[in-house]
């Protein structure tokens, strides 16, 4: 029997929908758990997990619960608080230790609240930055994935005015390297990567910006000369159409919204009668760190927390993506 894939699931902010989607996802993965193909360790508040299981009338006996408390402050469902930030941080911190000690193969994260995190005294912009700090590395890369739509980001959680200064040849090479590695791990033997421009129309030959000619194009030329199918810079308003048409396997975006908007437009399912979103699919993947991490591609949804209405589709996607990536890494390390 193959070695089970051991995943550390962090509950995120227990005042949000994290506990509910963890329980729902575990229900959907029950056959894989029973077959011994996967082991799920849940980190967070044991009380919150039990409350979610009662709310949903589901059994979570197949999950190994690791309570990271105590947290003295009270958590109120649907409300932002420092208590939620403490639970969220402690869960991620413990999950990192499990991966570092070899007790888990990857981390799958439910959503946390950045405001609650800051109220608790943890000054991180999000999971990516927190994981970089906890693992001792500063050059993590965020990739969003929705089916064949895969988008890596040169910059993420920073002001738009800071993006040009953060766009360096070294950073672009780093993003390209880990993106190519991730595509190989996903089973794509000859990945095709498109690089988006920073400026409108990819700079329009230098008329609308110089970064494409000074930084982006020379790096692309390096990779093309080394035999990689890396092309660009492509205009940001058309490159994602080509990605959706599967002319590429991934796009490297220059900043947060350039990459997030097209993926999330496809990932959110909207009820045409009410305009309300019903479900969201898609995965947030942290690349370039010694710890593999996937995550849901949505927030804490405090407004529906505790109602049982939250969709676990993105959490299931994140678990499945983690499984594929772990299997790909194992295959790459196996002797020929």
Notes on the protein architecture:
By secondary structure, this protein is α/β, with parallel strands linked by helices. The chain has 2 domains: 1-137 and 289-336, Isopropylmalate Dehydrogenase (3-Layer(aba) Sandwich); 141-282, Isopropylmalate Dehydrogenase (3-Layer(aba) Sandwich), CATH 3.40.718.10. Helix content is 40%, strand content 19%. It has 12 helices and 13 strands. The protein has helices spanning 18-28, 30-34, 46-56, 82-100, 114-119, 127-135, 163-166, 169-185, 211-225, 239-244, 256-267, 313-333, and strands at 5-10, 38-44, 64-67, 106-109, 141-146, 149-153, 192-196, 229-234, 250-253, 268-270, 277-280, 283-287, 293-296. Strands 3-2-1-4-13-12-5-6-9-7-8 form an 11-stranded mixed β-sheet, with helices on both faces. A two-stranded antiparallel sheet has the order 10-11. The two termini are 20 Å apart. The mean pLDDT is 94.
Supply database-style keywords.
single chain; 336 residues; alpha/beta; Isopropylmalate Dehydrogenase; 11-stranded mixed beta sheet; two-stranded antiparallel ribbon; globular
- Mean pLDDT comes to 94
Total strands: the figure is: 13
Which architecture name of the largest domain does CATH use? Answer: 3-Layer(aba) Sandwich
What do we call the CATH homologous superfamily of the largest domain? Answer: Isopropylmalate Dehydrogenase
Radius of gyration based on Cα positions: 20 Å
The main sheet orders its strands as 3-2-1-4-13-12-5-6-9-7-8
What are the secondary-structure elements, in order, as H or E? Answer: EHHEHEHEHHEEHHEHEHEHEEEEH
Instruction: Enter the CATH topology name of the largest domain.
Output: Isopropylmalate Dehydrogenase
Q: How is the biggest beta sheet arranged?
A: 11 strands, mixed
Helix-residue proportion: 40-55%
What fraction of the residues are assigned to beta strands by DSSP?
A: 15-25%
Shape: globular
**Unreliable sequence segments:** none
- Integer tally of domains: 2
């Amino acid at each position: 029997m193959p070695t089970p894939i051991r995943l550390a699931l962090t509950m995120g902010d227990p005042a949000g929908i994290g506990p509910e989607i963890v329980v729902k996802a575990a229900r959907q993965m029950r056959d894989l758990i029973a077959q011994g193909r996967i082991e799920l360790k849940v980190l967070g508040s044991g009380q919150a997990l039990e409350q979610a299981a009662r709310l949903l009338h589901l059994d979570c006996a197949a999950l190994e619960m690791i309570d990271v408390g105590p947290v003295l402050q009270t958590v109120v469902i649907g409300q932002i608080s420092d208590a939620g930030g403490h639970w969220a941080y402690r869960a991620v911190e413990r999950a990192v230790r499990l991966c570092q000690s070899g007790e888990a193969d990857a981390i799958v994260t439910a959503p946390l609240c950045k405001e609650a995190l800051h109220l608790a005294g943890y000054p991180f912009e999000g999971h990516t930055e927190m994981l970089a700090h906890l693992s001792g590395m500063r050059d993590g890369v965020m990739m969003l994935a929705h089916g064949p739509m895969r988008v890596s980001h040169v910059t993420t959680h920073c002001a738009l005015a800071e993006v040009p200064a953060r766009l360096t040849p070294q950073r672009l090479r780093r993003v390209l390297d880990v993106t190519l590695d991730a595509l190989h791990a996903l089973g794509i033997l000859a990945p095709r990567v498109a690089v988006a421009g920073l400026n409108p129309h990819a700079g329009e030959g230098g008329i609308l910006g110089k970064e494409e000619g000074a930084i982006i194009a020379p790096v692309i030329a390096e990779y093309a000369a080394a035999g990689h199918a890396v092309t660009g810079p492509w205009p940001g308003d058309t490159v994602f159409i080509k990605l959706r048409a599967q002319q590429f396997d991934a796009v490297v975006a220059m900043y947060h919204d350039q990459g997030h908007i097209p993926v999330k437009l496809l990932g959110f399912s909207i009820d045409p009668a009410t305009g309300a979103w019903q479900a969201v699919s898609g995965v947030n993947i942290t690349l370039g760190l010694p710890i593999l991490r996937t995550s849901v591609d949505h927030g804490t949804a405090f407004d529906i927390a505790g109602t049982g209405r939250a969709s676990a589709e993105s959490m299931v996607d994140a678990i499945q993506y983690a499984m594929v990536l772990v299997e790909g890494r194992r295959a790459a390390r196996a002797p020929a």
